[in-house]
Every structure is written in C-alpha cells, then in structure tokens.
Amino acid sequence: MNNVTITLEQARALDALAREGTFQAAARALRKGHTAVMHAVRAIEDATGLELLDRSGYRTRLTGAGERVLEACRRMLEAERDLARVVHEAKTGWEPRLRIVVDGIVPAEPLLRAVGDLGRAGAPTRIDVVSEFLSGVEAAFARTDADLMVSLLPPMTSGVVSTQLTPIGAELVVHASHPLAKHKRADSADLEAHMLLTVRGSDPRLELPTAGLEPRSVVHLNDFWAKRAALLAGLGFGWMPVHLVRDELRRKTLRRVDFTGGSTHEFRPRLVRRRGRALGRAAQALVEALGARQVRPRGAGGID
Predict the structure, then answer these.
(1) Distance of CA 243 to the CA centre of its chain
(2) What is the CATH number of domain 8-90?
(3) pLDDT tens sequence across 184-210
(4) pTM above 0.90, yes or no
C-alpha cells in the first residue's frame, strides 16, 4: 500500500467545498482565495490518484471516491480538534466547548445562573445547553456527543457514570372543573374512563403509580408546557412537577387527584457524564450548580 499524505489545509478545503457547494463559497468560508481551494483539492486528487469531483454538470459534486476521502478528511479534522482541546485544557483547565443536555422538567434557574456567571467572568468555554424531555434526553446526548446530561431516566448508554440529584416532586392533577376533581377517592377504573395526558418519550422506568392503567385515550404532548396547557383546558389528567404548577395548585385552578394507587411521586434526576472524559473548569461549575459537587467513577453506569 502506497503512503498517502494529505495536509490539514487540504482536508479543510475539501470539507468546506462539500459543505458550501462551490469553490467560491468554500473560499469565503475559509477566507482564502478561490484558486487556493482549487489547488488544495487538486493536490488531494494527485496524492490519492482518485477523481474526487464530478465536474460534468453545472455544479461540482463529489464522486463516490470523493465521499469516502471526505469522511477520512473529516476524521483528520476531528482529531485536530481533539488535540487542540487536550492542549487547551492542559494549559488552562478550561475546555474549548461544553455540551450539556438537560431534561426540561428540571428547574433551569441554577444551571442558567451558572452559565451566566461563567460568561460574566470571561470564561473562554463555549457552552451549549439543549433541553429535551424524558427519553429524548439520552437520544440527544448520544446524537450530539454531549459531555453531560441531566436525565430522569436511568442511562442505557454504556461507558457513563451517573450521580443522583435532588428529587423533584410531582402530583397527579386535573382542572378543577374535571369530573375526577370531584372524586373523594378515585380508583383505576375511574381514571381509565378519562383521557390521560402524557409527554412524548415517557418510559416505564419512571415507575409512575399510574403505569398499569389502560385509559380510554392517551394524548402524547411534546413537553410539559403543552401538557400544562392541556390540563388547564380540562382535557384530561396527568402527572406534573409541582414547581411547574405551584401557582395553579395554590389558586386551586388545578387539583390533585385522590388516586388509590398514589397521587404523589418523586422524579429522581441524574447527572450523567462520560467515563474517562475529564471535567474542565466550566463543567465543574455546572456540576456544582446542579448540586452534584463530586462526580467519581464507581462501576459502569453506577450511581455515586
């Protein structure tokens, strides 16, 4: 096998061409001259002995070989970014970028306050916070290669360590005008006669007291704010974190359903990080804001 040498500059040129679609747009993205990008791509073709571009049409497109070489070039660029991150962290303790996925049910104020404090202090870390719900949290954690996640569900991803956070109280509620609000003691049959409101991505691992019900109809909503609106419209019953409906419960606009199986529940969020990926200064600040001051390995997927 002949050795093939491709420089990072050449790899960047091919990556930019694939992303931007034209040599001119790629040159603008790289802040280089048009001919410099053309020469860089041609140099890769010369080095590999492959035709990377289909130049027969109006727009330049990658050939099948070009797509495969592009994948290799992008791995080179990712390795370069990894090296830069390692060097930067070793010198300063600050990670260049931090991604965290948080379940939207978790109170956001402590985390957002910590992010704001880091920004005001001039922290160089770019922090990306993504809000998802229930099973969507771990899906986003895997899809984006995030560093941290706060999930209500036990993680199924391998190679992670999780730490229990402060539990979140929840109650089974309905609008004050709903028939279930009038029940002194509702049983499973009473609940099954009405519509259950739930958030898409709900999971048996939540261990809700209503898990075994077979209601007449179920509405899957996108998030807890949509669920709150549906409850206030009197459409059905459902579980809500107390901190999201505290005012409505105090005003008795929403009322707790007195269910024989249990009317209260505790969601138990977990802070999850990837095993072997050291936490930089920004990550440590967010960990402390979430109330998990120490995150130490203790067995695969275990809880500290």
Answers:
(1) 22
(2) 1.10.10.10
(3) 899 999 999 999 999 987 888 888 899
(4) no
